[in-house]
Structure formats: C-alpha cells, structure tokens
Amino acid sequence: MKTLYLSNTTEDILKAADILRDGGLVAMPTETVYGLAANALDGDAVRRIFEAKGRPMDNPLIVHVSEFSDIDRLHLVAEIPEKARSLAEAFWPGPLTIIMKKGAVIPDEVSAGLDTVAIRIPSHPDAHRLMALSGLALAAPSANTSGKPSPTTAGHVRDDMDGRIEAVIDGGACSVGVESTVITVATDIPRILRPGLITREEIEAVIGHIEVDRAVLNKLENNEKAASPGMKYKHYAPKARVILVRGTDEKYITFVNRAYARDKGVAAMCYDEDASRISAPCVTMGGMNDEKQQAQELFDALRAVDTIEGVSTVYAHCPSAEGVGMALYNRMIRAAAFEVIDLPKKRVIGLTGQTGAGKSEVARLMAERGLPVVSADAAARKAVEDESVKRALCDAFGDVLLPDGSLDRRKTAEVAFSSPENTAKLNAITHPKIRAIMLDEAEQAAGEWVVFDASQLFESGEDTLCDLIVSVVADRKLRMERLRTRDGIGDEEIARRMSVQYDESFFRAMSDAVIENNGTVGALDRAVGNICERLVSP
Ligand code: TXA
Ligand code: MG
User: Fold this and answer.
1) Phi, psi at residue 184, to the nearest 5°?
2) Hey, is 340 helix, strand or coil?
3) What angle do CA 234, 236, 237 make, to 5 degrees?
4) How far apart are CA 142 and CA 19, in angstroms?
5) Ligand nearest to the CA of 101
C-alpha cells in the first residue's frame, strides 16, 4: 500500500475524512501524540489498526470525539457519571481520557471485550476538524509500532507506518508529547490507569480523592491482572538497553562518565544542563526544571537513542515521580523494563589497586582517620552465605556445597577460575549481591563519606558508584616480594595473578588520585593523610 502524506489544509483533511468513511486508516496529530485513526463504530476498520501496529487484540482503544454532545448522540457510553461530567468540564478538550461503562454500539475490537470504553476529546485543531468533517467518532491508539515510543511528529509515524496505512496528516510536532492521562470512573473511587500531563493533584482539585493504579509505578507480578491492559506490555523501548539511574546530577554525571571510560557502547539520556559535562554520547530530554518540556521531548529522545552509532546501553537520568514527573517516570521505567540503578546517597571513595601494592594498608590508614571502610572481600564472603546465591552457584558449577550446607570455597574457586567463561558466570551471580551488601553497609555508616575497598572495583562496575577513586600502585619487584611473604605463593602463581589485572597505566588513567607505595610506612601514612585532606575536605 502506498501511504498518502497529507498537509493540514481543509482540502487534505477532507481527503482524509473520505478515507476514514471508506474504512481506511489515517494517522492524525493530536496535542499529545499522533493517533492512528479509524471509524470507531466499524469493527473491520478497527481490526486493521491492530494489524498495522502489531498490537495485541486484548489492548483496548480510545474513542475520540469532537464535541461532548457526540457521546450521547452516538450512544457511546451506557451513562455519563457526574464525576465524568465535572472532569469533562474542567479538562476537555485536552489530554485526558475518561473510561466509562460502554454503550452497545461499541464494537468488541475497540473495547477488547471489556464492558467499558475510553473516551477523549482532543484539543488539536486538525484532529478536531477531521472528526467534524468526517462526522465520525475515531478509535485511535498512538500511531507507533506496538512496543516502540509513541510518535510525536509525522516523521516518527512515517518511520513506523509507511506502507501500512492509507494516509498521514502532518500537523507538526505535538505540544504535550506524552499520551493522555487515563482515568476510570467506572470504579467506586476513580483511578488513574495511566499518568499524563494532567496530574493527580489537578484532578483531585476537581473531583476529590482518587487512586493511582499500582501498575502506574510498579512492575506487575506475573499473575496480577492489569486494570489497563496497555500497562502489562513492554513499551517505549529503543533497541539499545535502557537503564534508569537515580541520583543527584553530580552523581549521575560521574556515573555515566566512569561507565563510558570503560565501555564505549554507553550513552546518556540526560537533562539539557548536564550534557556538556558528560563525555559519553548524549540525547537530551529537556531542561531539568521544566517537566513540560521533558514530556514534550521524551519520545523523540527515546527514538534518537537508536540513531547513535554503536550504542548498546543507555543510562537515563531517572525523574522524580511527582506531578507531571509521574508520567515521565511511568514511560521511562517501561522503556527500561523496570531496570533501575540507585546511586548511593553517601559520598564514596573507591579504593583499589594492583595486587600486592598495599591497598589493605591504605584502607587501614583511612579507617584510622575516621573514614568508614566497606570491604568488598567481606561483602563477598557474606554474599555466598545467601541461599539464592548458593543455589545459583550449584546450578552453574555443580554441587559446590560442604556437608553442612555452606559453600565449599576451594571447590568453587577451582571451577570458577578454570576458564574466563566460568569466572564471568561467577561474577554475574555474586556481584549484584556483593554490591547490594556494600551499598547497604555504606548507607548505615556514620558520616558523609565511606570507602569502598575493592580490588575488583573496575571489573565489578562499582567504580561507577564512586565520587572519587584512589588507586594504590607499587613497583613490580616490590609487589612480588610482598606477595611471596604475605601469601606464600610461588613466582608462577604471582605472575598469573598479575597477568589478569589491569596494568598501572590503566589505574592511573581511571583514578582521581594515585598512591605510590614504594617507601616506608611513615611515607604511606603521610600520602594517605594528604589525599584525605585534599579530596575529602571541602
Ligand atoms: O493521548 C492519547 O491518549 C493518545 C492519542 C492518540 O489520543 N492515544 C493513546 O492510545 O495513547 P493508546 O491506545 O496507545 O493507549 C490507550 C491506553 C492503553 O494503555 C489501553 O490499555 C488503555 O488506554 N485503555 C483503553 N481503553 C480502556 C478500557 N476500557 N479500560 C482500561 N484501559 C483502557
Ligand atoms: Mg500506545
């Protein structure tokens, strides 16, 4: 099928109206996002919407009309409850969708077999004229391929729908940018099923107390039923993996820069003000204090992610879920398939270094200066006491438990370090738990700063959680000597341990400070003192 690209002149809108009356599909601009419209009362036409989008048939559509009186005139609902009237009065035409008990004329395709129907009067003049000139109520979901971000320009629609629908009306970029707030008044207490530009607070100011459906901010359990079927599907997702990162601007910027320093497949999705301080490729999503602009730019930003070459992971700065932020968070958490990284609230010094360089000694000296030290080794020992970690290790490496049920560390180490693949498996099983334990201990520690003492700081990705990184290095000969006396191991084992570590230049490049531990204990103490003073004191 050849898709017709129309302007928003009356002549073109009349053409689109004809297409709709003939049972065709037209993408139309609304103030929220572009909708893929069909005659709402023609079940066959509506079915074609699902085909064009690849949309699951159990996800109902919104019926759009141009006048409040159309709802009664076309018998779209069984009755209009008082609260729906108040909401319509306050917010229509505009980005609010109201769910009511449906009228008998509503085809099953529209309501997906539910006994309710969603109604909205959009404020966009082109949508308004299209409905007025066609005389039709229009069923219209967002005009994207199912699962992708909703389209906010005619170009987005073309990317997804070219050749699949009869026509697109280009009405420019949508001003709101996220889909309408969906509220049901078919329940005892009205409930928001999808947040949008019109906030809970604004609605409560008109009709009093309402609820927010659990699925708005939380992941549904497998057996939980979605009040709004659309909420159960993965949504808004670019091809790259999106992960939300929650923390202050400063922490977020440091996080992304450290992640990018190690992995060039990383990109950022950030507020305008932070972009210049981020070394990774960025897409911006509006000014940090302008939630309306963020809403307007969000879907374009998510689509832009896929235009960055070579990107595999996008770290998006997590918005607060307050006010309009609830709509942003709701879309972004779905784009991220609910993957969130919480950055520590404490300020963290990552302490790491080459084996045998004297990192533990530095940790001790830092602790002496009153800095709480969280040890990755201790966290690792705790992590393997966890039942689910033990189970996962047995699944991966066979029976690695001692008769008393505790982990056989020797046996585990033997298998896990027998190949790089097994080592990666071990890390994938243990690192998340180790990290959780360390974060927990950090939050419980007294004071503003904590030290993460971790020889695998970079390998585990915990470097990204650190405000500052201090590495300890020493001459190779000295380190070998220390390992010989400290661990009583031979040259071959020493060489092996050293060969799997990063070299000194890596530690230097990735650290904010480097301690050279080639001298005496007194010199080391002074070096630590200097660093603590220089880095930690304001
Ligand atoms: O801003 C918008 O609402 C845009 C523009 C085009 O109007 N439309 C839109 O439609 O976003 P769509 O289909 O992408 O999203 C409609 C949402 C889905 O999550 C769907 O499950 C829910 O509304 N929905 C529709 N009818 C429902 C009903 N009877 N009961 C519960 N949820 C319903
Ligand atoms: Mg949609």
Assistant:
1) -100, 135
2) strand
3) 75
4) 19
5) 1
- d(CA 148, CA 476) in angstroms, rounded, equals 53
Say how many Å lie between the CA of residue 61 and the centre of ligand 1: 5
Q: What is the pLDDT of residue 145?
A: 96
Confidence of residue 228 (pLDDT cuts 50, 70, 90): confident
86 three-class SS: helix
Q: Which ligand is nearest to the CA of 112?
A: 1
Taking residues 118-123, what's their average pLDDT?
A: 98
pLDDT value of position 537:
67
DSSP string covering 152-189: -SHHHHHHHHTTTSSEEE---S-SS-SPPEEEE-SSSS
What's the rounded Cα separation, in Å, for the pair 249 and 238?
24
Are 189 and 206 within 8 A, CB to CB? no
Query: Residue-wise over 383-395: b if at least 16 C-beta within 10 A, else e?
Result: bbeeeebbebbee
Most distant CA pair in the chain, distance:
91
The pLDDT value recorded for residue 43 is 97
Query: With 90 as the cut, is the pLDDT of residue 193 above it?
Result: yes
Q: Candidates 138, 179, 234: which one to mutate for ligand 1, based on the most atoms within 8 Å of Cβ? A: 179
Residue (of 33, 47, 64, 32) closest to 132 by Cα position: 64
Three-state SS letters, 278-335: CCCCEEECCCCCCHHHHHHHHHHHHHHHCCCCCCCEEEEECCCCCCCHHHHHHHHHHH
Place of tokens 């036409």: 45
Query: Which 8-state DSSP code applies to residue 136?
Result: -
Closest ligand relative to 106 C-alpha: 1
Nearest residue to 291 (alpha-carbon basis) of 269, 323, 316: 323
Write the single-letter amino acid at 504. E
Interval 55-112: pLDDT, tens: 999 999 999 999 999 999 999 999 999 999 999 999 999 999 999 999 999 999 999 9
pLDDT at residue 194 in the model: 97
Residues that place a CB less than 5 A from ion ligand 2 = 142
> Which of 33, 53, 62, 298 has the most ligand 1 atoms within 8 A of CB, as the residue to mutate?
62
Model pLDDT for residues 520-532, shown as the tens digit of each residue = 888 899 999 998 8
Average pLDDT, the chain: 95
User: 178 to each of 3, 181, 202, how far by Cα in Å?
Assistant: 25, 9, 17
User: Residue 407 has what DSSP assignment?
Assistant: B
Q: What is the pairing mode between strands 266-270 and 313-317?
A: parallel
Ligand 1 within 6 A of CB of 35: yes
Instruction: Quote the ligand 2 centre to 78 CA distance (angstroms).
Output: 25
Residues in the chain: 538
Tell me: the pLDDT tens digits for 128-181?
A: 999 999 999 999 999 999 999 999 999 999 999 999 999 999 999 999 999 999
Q: Compute, in angstroms, the gap from residue 327 CA to the centroid of ligand 2.
A: 13
